[in-house]
Amino acid sequence: MSKNKPHKSALSKHEGVSQNETTNRAAISKFLNKRNKDFSSDALANAIVKGDTIALSRAITLVESTNPKHLQKANEVLAKCLPYTNNSIRIGITGVPGVGKSTFIEALGNNIANNSSKLAVLAVDPSSSITKGSILGDKTRMEQLANNPNVYIRPSAAGTSLGGVARKTRESIILCEACGFKYIFVETVGVGQSETVVHSMVDFFLLLKLAGAGDELQGIKRGIIELADAIVINKADGNNFKNAQKAKVEFNRALHLYPPKPNGWVPKVLLTSATESTGIDKVWELIEMYVDQAKKESFFSKKRMEQHTFWLHQTIEDRLKSNFYNNEQVKKALHEQLTAIENNQTTPFAAAQYLLSLVSK
Ligand code: GDP
C-alpha cells in the first residue's frame, strides 16, 4: 500500500485528535487543563460507570495525553473503572483501504445498535505515525451510525509508536466497557503490525477481503489468515458476485491447509454486500455462535488472560528497551562498539554484553 495515499475509515467523522502531533498535544493539554479542576478521577469514573459518554471522552483524552499528570489521572480513572469491565464482546475488523470497512461497520453496527445494544467503535491507526495520520482525514460515511444514540465512535489516537497506540486503544476499551458498551469494534488498516496488535486485544478477529480475478490468495499478507476467525468477502454484489463466490471457495480451500486454532475453531468464509446490507446478519450470527462456543468451552476467558499476559510482557520489554537505548552512556558506547565490531576488535556478543553491563551496574 502506498504510504502517502489517503485512505478512508469508519472512524473519520468525529473531529477527535488532530493529525499533527505538536498541535495535537497542545490541544489535548489545553482541553484537559481547562477542565481538570472540575473533574477529579472519582467524578470521572463515577460518571463513566453511569454511562456518561462525555466523561468517557474526557477519560480517553487523558489516556491519550503525554503529560505525566494526565497519565497519572488516567491510571486512577482506569483503576476505578476496572471492576466494571470484562462484560463486552470485542471484535477486530481489518482490511485494506477501499475494501469497505466503514460501510461494513455502519451496516453491522446499525444491526447491533438498533437492537438497543450499546456499541463503541475505536481504531488502531499506526499509519498516524507513518503517514502522519490519514485515517481521520476523510469525510465520514457513517453518518447514520454516528447519530445512533447507542453508538459511541472514537477515532484513533495519533501516536509515535505502535506500542503507544496499542496501549491507548486497550485502555480506551476498558473505559468503554466500564461505560456499559456491550460491543466494541476495533478497526485497523493493514499497516505495519497493526493486525497482530489488534488481534491481541479482541475476542473475534474479522478480515475483510475483496474478490479478485482468481488470484485471491496472492498478495495476502503472510500470517493474516492464521489470525482471522472469519474472512468476509465484501462487495459480493452486481457483476462481482460470481467472483466473490469463486473467492469463497478458494479461501475455504486455503483455510483447510492451516491447522485448527488451539481452541478448535475453524475460521469461516462469508460473503457480504455492505452497500446492499446482504450477508451482514450471517456475519453477526457467526460471531454470536463463536462467542457462545467460546464461553461454553471457557476459552473466552482463557484467551483474554493470555492477552493480559502478552501485554504485560510486551509493556515490560518495550520499557526496558527504551530505557536501555535512551541511556546516555549506552548511546555513546553503542557507536564506539559498532566501530570496534567493524574493525574486528570485538564481536557483537561481547559488545552486547559490555553495553548491557552499563545499565545493570
Ligand atoms: P474503507 O476504506 O475500507 O473504509 O472502505 P469504504 O467503506 O470507504 O468503501 C470504499 C468504497 O467501496 C465506497 O465507495 C463504498 O461505497 C464502496 N463499497 C463498500 N462496500 C461495498 C459493497 O458491499 N459493494 C459495493 N459495490 N461497493 C461497496
What does this structure look like?
This protein is of the alpha/beta class. It folds into three domains: 21-82, Single alpha-helices involved in coiled-coils or other helix-helix interfaces, CATH 1.20.5; 85-296, Rossmann fold (3-Layer(aba) Sandwich), CATH 3.40.50; 308-359, Helix Hairpins, CATH 1.10.287. The protein contains 15 helices and seven strands. It has helices at 21-36, 41-49, 53-64, 68-81, 101-113, 127-130, 143-146, 162-178, 194-199, 224-227, 241-255, 280-296, 299-326, 328-342, 348-359; strands at 89-94, 119-124, 151-153, 183-188, 204-210, 230-234, 268-271. It has a seven-stranded parallel sheet, with helices on both faces. Helix 2 packs across helix 4. It is globular, with a radius of gyration of 22 Å.
Question: How are the SSEs ordered, and which strands pair?
Answer:
Elements lengths: L20 H16 L4 H9 L3 H12 L3 H14 L7 E6 L6 H13 L5 E6 L2 H4 L12 H4 L4 E3 L8 H17 L4 E6 L5 H6 L4 E7 L13 H4 L2 E5 L6 H15 L12 E4 L8 H17 L2 H28 L1 H15 L5 H12 L2
Parallel strand pairs: 1-4, 1-5, 2-3, 2-4, 5-6, 6-7
The structure holds guanosine-5'-diphosphate.
Family: Belongs to the SIMIBI class G3E GTPase family. ArgK/MeaB subfamily.
InterPro entries: GTPase_ArgK, P-loop_NTPase
Keywords: Hydrolase
